Structures are given as C-alpha cells and as structure tokens.
Amino acid sequence: MSENQNQNPEGEEMTTQAAASSSLASISSENLGKRAPGTKPLGAGLEARGVHAWFGKHHALANVSLDFSAGTVTALIGPSGCGKSTFIRTLNRMHEFIPSAAMAGEVLLDGKDVYAAGTDVTKIRLQIGMVFQKPNPFPSMTIGENVLSGIKLAQLKVENKDDLLEECLVRAGLWKEVKDRLGAHAGGLSGGQQQRLCIARSLAVKPKVLLMDEPCSALDPGSTLRIEDTINELSSSMTIIIVTHNMQQAARVSDYTAFFLSEGGPGQMIEVAPTSEIFSRPRDKRTENYVSGRFG
Ligand SMILES: Nc1ncnc2c1ncn2[C@@H]1O[C@H](COP(=O)(O)OP(=O)(O)OP(=O)(O)O)[C@@H](O)[C@H]1O
Ligand SMILES: [Mg+2]
C-alpha cells in the first residue's frame, strides 16, 4: 500500500497520466525477452476456475477464473479491498483457516483440484508456497534454522542440508550477505534481508508455485529492487503470482497482469493480459483509468 504508483525510477512525479502509463508500458516491453516464460518443462501450472470467496455473509470475491502458466510471473493489481489477498489465499487453501471464510470454485495445480476430497492440505502448501507483506522469520531461530524450518516441520528427507541451505540462500539473493553468520539469529537481519530469508525458507521445500502478497511494501527501494531481481531469477524455475500496488513493479517483474476491482459488490477480475498490453492498450476503460492513476 505504501509504495508510490506515479513515480518514475528517479522518484520524480510524472507530469501527465498518459506519460505514466506509456512509460510503464515501455518498462514492461524492456522486460520482455529477458525471460522466456513457460519454456521449461515445469508442469501445467495453476488454474483458478470460477472462484468465489465469502467471509460470513460478505461475498468478497466473485467468479474469478485465471490461468497461471508454468514458469510465468503474474501481477495482481487493483484498489484496496478488491479481493487480491483473498484470492491468493484461496490458491493454497490458506483462506479456509480464517473463521467464517467459505469458497466455491476450483483451483487446479497441474490439472488436479487442490480442493478435491481427500487432498492433503499440508502437501498443497508445500507445493504452493507463500511470502507475506511483512517478513515473518522466526526471530529466535538462526538464519540456517529458518531456511530449513519447513523441511523439519514437514519431516522431509534431505541428503545434504548444507547444500540445500546454500542453494536456497543463493536463489533468494541472500547468500553473500549471510554466509559467514548462518548461526546468527534471524531477528538481527534488516527488513529486506528478512524478506529474502522468508523467500529462501519457501524455496527449501521446492514449491512449484510461489504466492507473494505485496512482498516489498515494507521495504526501501534498494531492497525492493533486490527482491525483484530474485523474482526474475526464480521465474525460470517456478510459477509466481505477486500482488502489488506498485505499477512500476508490476511492469518490471511480470509477464501477465490481472486487474481486480470491486464496484460496490464482490471483487471481480476485470481483465488479464500480457503486462505491456495492460499498460499500453487495456481493453476495459476501468483498467485504463486505474493504471493511469485516475483512481485507486
Ligand atoms: N479476515 C477477514 N474477515 C472478514 N472480511 C475480510 C477478511 N479479510 C478480508 N476481508 C474483506 O474482503 C474484502 C477483500 O479484502 P482483501 O484483503 O482481499 O483485499 P485486497 O485487495 O487484498 O486489499 P489491500 O490492497 O488493501 O490489501 C474486503 O471487503 C475485506 O474487508
Ligand atoms: Mg491485500
């Protein structure tokens, strides 16, 4: 929530809304070609079909269908309260932990409904990891223990824990900064380092999909760019879904962008398209108004 939507990388205010969205489109186009989404044999990806969510009688989300191809990064954007967090919590069955919460619809991981009867929810959460807005490492555990905590909890067998530890910290872009203090408490890391530690912790259980709910909103610009680099690196080996209020970030990291909106009723997915299209020629007027900063 706290990030500016209408600032260019130098931090200057954009003079016109048109300039803002055309610059976002060009950032996104520059990004194209850096990665080749979906070219690795990563499975079928994730698919939401007709997802609805309720909190008690409050219908928070209506009929969202979205396809996340394996190896792509999708940004979810939209004004506060339109259901972005609710939606991503339905994807790994976190939603059902909220008292009074209900959902309808299907979420297919590699073609199999994660809500099918008899599905082991713990296994689903290992395959679909999540990184939250506020970094949440275990502060009294060491850095190393944090990374391996998911492995321990799920009682997964690992041949060489030191190798896994290094691999996850390298992939999360934190290895160089912590390699000499793996035994130090995680609470002593900066906010940006803690967030990368949480990413490393998610990676240790080898998820197919990583859900990120505003992972940079509490971070300074330097840490934000570092996490965006991490997302770019990770996207060759997994499917990533990121909620962001920062249009520049959506333009920099994502292949596809989905715009959510609630117009007095439940939140809906208004439009999804390749990110450069969402910023240059959105089909829906409401998307255009939002990405050009006219509301939200
Ligand atoms: N735990 C909850 N209990 C009851 N209602 C909730 C709960 N969480 C969210 N809601 C409601 O569901 C709707 C969607 O909220 P959600 O948090 O998904 O929005 P969001 O798009 O993530 O917003 P933001 O950008 O502010 O994070 C809102 O009306 C919100 O008040
Ligand atoms: Mg949210």
Please provide a brief summary of the model.
This protein has 296 residues and is α/β, with parallel strands linked by helices. It has eleven helices and ten strands.
Describe the protein in words:
This protein has one domain (17-291): Rossmann fold, CATH 3.40.50. The strands form two sheets. The protein has a six-stranded mixed β-sheet, sandwiched between helices. A four-stranded antiparallel β-sheet has the order 2-1-4-5, covered by helices on one side. The protein starts with 16 loop residues before the first helix and ends in a 5-residue tail after the last helix. Helix 1 (17-31) runs parallel beside helix 9 (247-253) and helix 7 (191-204) packs parallel to helix 8. With 296 residues, the protein is α/β, with parallel strands linked by helices. The protein is 35% helix and 22% strand. It is globular, with a radius of gyration of 19 Å. The structure holds adenosine-5'-triphosphate and magnesium ion (MG). The site of magnesium ion has 3 residues, from helix 2.
